[in-house]
Amino acid sequence: EDQVTQSPEALRLQEGESSSLNCSYTVSGLRGLFWYRQDPGKGPEFLFTLYSAGEEKEKERLKATLTKKESFLHITAPKPEDSATYLCAVQASETDNYGQNFVFGPGTRLSVLP
Amino acid sequence: GAVVSQHPSWVICKSGTSVKIECRSLDFQATTMFWYRQFPKQSLMLMATSNEGSKATYEQGVEKDKFLINHASLTLSTLTVTSAHPEDSSFYICSQTQREDTQYFGPGTRLTVL
Prior knowledge:
The complex is a heterodimer of chains A (114) and B (114). Chain A is mainly β and 114 residues long. Chain A contains no helices and 11 strands. Chain A has strands at 3-7, 10-14, 19-26, 30-38, 45-50, 56-59, 62-66, 70-75, 84-92, 102-104, 108-113. In chain A, the strands form 2 sheets. In chain A, strands 2, 4, 5, 9, 10 and 11 form a 6-stranded mixed beta sheet that branches. Chain A has a 5-stranded antiparallel beta sheet with strand order 1-3-8-7-6, with no helix packed on it. The radius of gyration of chain A is 14 Å and the shape is globular. Chain B is an all-beta fold. In chain B, 0% of the residues lie in helices and 55% in strands. In chain B, the strands form 2 sheets. In chain B, strands 2, 4, 5, 6, 9, 10 and 11 form a 7-stranded mixed beta sheet that branches. A 4-stranded antiparallel beta sheet of chain B has the order 1-3-8-7, with no helix packed on it. In chain B, strand 9 (90-98) and strand 10 form a beta hairpin. The chains are: A mainly beta (114), B mainly beta (114). At the A-B interface, strand 4 and strand 5 of A face strand 5, strand 6, strand 9 and strand 10 of B.
């Protein structure tokens, strides 16, 4: 069964204190790994798609990396506006059903204190 | 500006009634849209893929007769929760994909079934 876990469940950082969020997955063939941020009561905001081990993508203070078993979202010098829940999801490429085979992780709640 | 809109943003209904949620693509003709559900303090779950001009594709465990999806045009997909019950109370979100897998999410619709 395809599974996605995220750690830590919650993280509090001081403004400027860099850190990393982890997304570990087990999937029967990876089509893609996705990162999103979500503010309370709102729809998610897409951040990155990673397709193969070794791939990296950056956007402002965020950098996502991918290995065969996990992905990291590195946050460099975070600001209070980076506070949100960060979700990752994987899409499996091998399946015996007709759906998209998208599995979301439980998320990491990030709080950045001024 | 917003790329995807949803209407209504929230709805309260009595048990046994049906509720229709609209998802509109504002600046892009989307042949495919996606519907998700998110229970309080939980992660997202992909429910189905809405295909313009053809039947929706449902993920495993999602009742197609319960959650009716219609993609009548390239800019509008609707999700109807039929005979809603309290356990259907949730945050329903749609999304579309543009340009190299960039996903745009709607703001979400909060459904409360009494």
